[in-house]
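ok so I'm stuck.
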Amino acid sequence: MRSRIRRFARATLHIAAIAVIAVIATMTVQAHLEQQERAAFPPPGQMVDIGGGERIHVRTWGEREAGTPALILDASAAMPSSEWAWIGQMLGQGHFLVAYDRPGMAWSDGPKKPRDAASAARALTAALAVAHIEPPYVVIAHSYGGFSSRAFVGLNRDDVAGLVLLDTTNPNGGGGAGFAAFYRARAWQGHAALFRLFPPQNSFSSLPLFEQAPAQVVSHWRSHLDTTAEELEAWPASVADIRDLTFGDLPVLVVSARGSAAHLDLQRDMLGVSGSSDYVELDVDHVGMLLVEDQARLSSDAIEGWLGEL
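replied:
not stuck anymore, here's the structure
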């Protein structure tokens, strides 16, 4: 019996040692491949150093005319700034647009910090100042980006001329814990190189051709996956950052995608952030309203029509 126990213990140790070696090898390969990808897919915009070892990736479309606002684009959870490619091309014909990757997301880098909405808003404020992108601003957000965009407006109220909420997350709705658990699992999958072994379908195949590969690659970088999970784990803090914010008579456009009656009610509820809010329902999907060309055209037209009334 003792001999069997010793043999079992030795076998268990051997298996554990092999597992540790496999994990180390996998992480080493993953790190090497990411280095290659970062060289192959450099940032499409500029890296803005905001101090403290933190750099924010900022990209633009269009030309700015004197006296016109810069349209500031805030992406959804798990999404790189590439998700704005169609909107950038469409609205960039007559406006100046600025998209950014929130701290730690996609091409933005730097030390680990709080990932709540207020922290992202402070980073964006600093990046715009360093990049000499002056106010006034019209802020346009999609989905989870509604948290950080509303925090940004609260921080820079005098510099903001309008706010567009594209099917954004309502802080009075639920779902934070579930999303956080899902994306934490995806982050573990990324560290285990499972996306290398079993490449997922390209989620960005409907973007302009030259945007597809970079968007897909950066969306599986470990830093991006980790930050996505951290942002969603900070959901309660982000809700606390913005729940009580209202913006007087700031012009606000709330755009809802297709959804259930409950979803539409949550979208209409956000009209209360301002005494000068407009509401539009579009026949688009939540993600497709940016990523799919014909749906992005509907989103762009709604924004363009509203901007014309400012």
